[in-house]
Design a protein that fits this description.
With 105 residues, the chain is α+β, with helices and mostly antiparallel strands. It contains one helix and eight strands.
Length: 105
């Protein structure tokens, strides 16, 4: 039996692994630390180390070496700034690569 997993690279050094057969989504940190706003966790997930995981499996959520920062938490503003900065850098890098590719055509 073959298992299909869809892999997406996200901002901040996080990789999303989606299993369409089960609906399970795993977010895995490839950086030393990352921040990602995830609605399933009702806040910003802070991945504390490389290899940290956040898993969404239906209505069940699981954290492995992660923590959640919610709007009511004191550090939410700083975490949100880090999310925005990583998103900006991620998309700016994509745009730059596309522009370079187009320039070579």
């Amino acid at each position: 039996m073959s298992v299909t997993v869809v892999v997406n690279k996200l901002a901040g050094g996080v990789v999303q692994l989606f299993n369409p057969d089960t609906g399970r989504i795993t977010y895995k940190c490839k950086a030393s630390r990352a921040y990602l706003k995830l609605d399933a966790f009702e806040g910003i997930v802070r991945f504390n180390n490389k290899g940290s995981k956040a898993i969404v499996d239906g209505a069940k959520t699981t954290l492995d070496d992660c923590s959640i920062i919610r709007k009511i938490d004191e550090g939410y503003g700083d975490a949100l700034k880090k999310v925005i900065e990583s998103e900006r850098n991620f998309y700016q890098d994509k745009i730059t690569k596309l522009q370079d590719k187009m320039a070579k055509m």
